[in-house]
What does this fold into?
Amino acid sequence: MDADEMNFQEAFLQTKMNWQHELELVKADPLSFKKITRIEKKILQARFRNITLTAMASSLLLSSLLLINPDFFFYLEVLFLGVLVGMLGYNFIIKKMKFSDYIQLSFHPLVARNVLLIVILLSFMYLFNNEFNFKDLGIAKVFFLYAMTTKIQLLYYNSRKINVLI
It folds into this structure.
């Protein structure tokens, strides 16, 4: 305002024109229904990448433990389900999340991407091997660990009031 000797209204309109491209509304994700600004999309995509990388790394690390002891998966299931129930309880009790928010979490773009990925992967596996049993596949365990890690991270970000499209 001082440099160009403008009043607030003129300076605000000038800034709005300069930032028009970044403030344009775009889809948050190909699997999302929400529209957000382009600058917010860049931040969210970086956060999604971090969530995905963390989930991949932890599921691969925990899967390597399954090679040592296959019975360890039962304890991991109990642990992950306990953490998930604990975080849901925490979010519901302190009113940081409503049940409708939890339903929206079930259709989150990262969760939808996980479901789409496993459907495509299982379809290809079925095409090449007609006699496979999903329960016997180790990939089901890895996918469970990946999906639970993703969902727990989304709940964590929600409890911290960090935007992850919930």
Remarks:
- Helices lie at 8-18, 38-68, 72-93, 99-106, 109-128, 138-159.
- The radius of gyration is 21 Å.
